[in-house]
């Protein structure tokens, strides 16, 4: 059955988009975790039990898998894509990973667009900012807008450009979270937590530091494993640019160590 969009992976992002855009009857999906078929059914998304069936009639595919599966998913799907189908790689991976995925898709006759999702899908949902790059980025922008996305910007025709912006930006965004965690651990150990936060709050009023610290640490405990994987891709990005990812390597460890812990 032909649908408007095919989703490879049905985790938080795909399920959030499906619910917010009301894609019931318009979308189909494949996920390597069979248990997610129930979530698809609850949202009216057709479940396919293999990637071949999911993409065989696809015009537009959104790849929303984990970072370590982005290239694997593209390589697995490529031989089964119809000619000229658009593969939107929305995964948080390095530019080289996107270019390798693009090689697989394009060699099989498909079209590839690098998509960088710049914020958590919750609570932004369809307003989450997205950057697109690739030869077919302009057409893809229109196709995504028709699906309900409202905050899309094309940043060039070069595959890897959108992901480079995200990966390099992530060095700062995720790095600040990791530095906050380290700072708070030391402040608690020294029993000067309130004083340290007050001193920071006095010098920067955009957001109270107690609020910012709690937010950053909550992000790490909730999403640390996923963010560590993303930061590994950021490290690869920096290495490819000739920059040693010294602080980024520390961020990877902090994000991964915080994953699943209960905030203090």
From TrEMBL:
Keyword Protein biosynthesis (UniProt): no
Q: List the Pfam families.
A: DUF1932 (PF09130), NAD_binding_2 (PF03446)
On whether Oxidoreductase is a keyword of this UniProt record, the answer is: yes
Any idea which GO molecular function terms this record carries? Answer: NADP binding; oxidoreductase activity
Superkingdom of this entry's organism?
Bacteria
> What UniProt keywords apply to this chain's record, in alphabetical order?
Oxidoreductase
Question: 6-phosphogluconate dehydrogenase NADP-binding domain: which residues?
Answer: 7-138
Annotated active site: 166
Q: Which residues form the Phosphogluconate dehydrogenase NAD-binding putative C-terminal domain?
A: 187-256
InterPro entries listed in its UniProt record: 6-PGluconate_DH-like_C_sf (IPR008927), 6PGD_dom2 (IPR013328), 6PGDH_NADP-bd (IPR006115), HIBADH-related (IPR015815), NAD(P)-bd_dom_sf (IPR036291), Pgluconate_DH_NAD-bd_C (IPR015814)
| Gene3D superfamilies cross-referenced by the UniProt entry | N-(1-d-carboxylethyl)-l-norvaline Dehydrogenase, domain 2, NAD(P)-binding Rossmann-like Domain
Please give the name of this protein.
Answer: 3-hydroxyisobutyrate dehydrogenase-like beta-hydroxyacid dehydrogenase
Q: Which organism is it from?
A: Novosphingobium kunmingense
């Amino acid at each position: 059955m032909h649908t408007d969009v095919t989703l490879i992976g049905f985790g938080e992002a795909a399920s959030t988009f499906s619910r917010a855009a009301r894609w019931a009857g318009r979308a189909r999906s494949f996920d390597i975790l069979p248990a997610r078929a129930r979530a698809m059914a609850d949202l009216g998304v057709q479940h396919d039990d293999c990637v071949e069936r999911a993409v065989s009639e696809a015009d537009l595919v959104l790849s929303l898998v984990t970072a370590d599966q982005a290239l694997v998913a593209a390589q697995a799907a490529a031989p089964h894509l119809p000619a000229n189908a658009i593969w939107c790689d929305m995964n948080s991976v390095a530019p080289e990973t996107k270019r390798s995925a693009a090689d697989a898709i394009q060699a099989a006759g498909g079209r590839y667009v690098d998509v960088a999702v710049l914020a958590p899908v919750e609570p932004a949902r369809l307003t989450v900012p997205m950057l697109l790059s690739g030869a077919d980025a302009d057409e893809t922008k229109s196709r995504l807008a028709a699906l309900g996305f409202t905050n899309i910007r094309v940043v060039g025709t070069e595959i890897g450009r959108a992901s480079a912006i995200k990966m390099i930006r992530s060095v700062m965004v995720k790095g600040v979270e990791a530095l906050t965690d380290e700072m708070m651990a030391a402040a608690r150990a020294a029993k000067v937590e309130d004083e340290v936060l007050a001193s920071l709050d006095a010098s920067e009023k955009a957001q109270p530091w107690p609020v910012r610290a709690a937010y950053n640490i909550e992000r790490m405990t909730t999403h640390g494993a996923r963010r560590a994987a993303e930061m590994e891709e950021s490290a690869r990005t920096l290495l490819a640019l000739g920059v040693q990812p010294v602080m980024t390597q520390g961020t990877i460890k902090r994000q991964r160590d915080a994953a699943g812990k209960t905030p203090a």
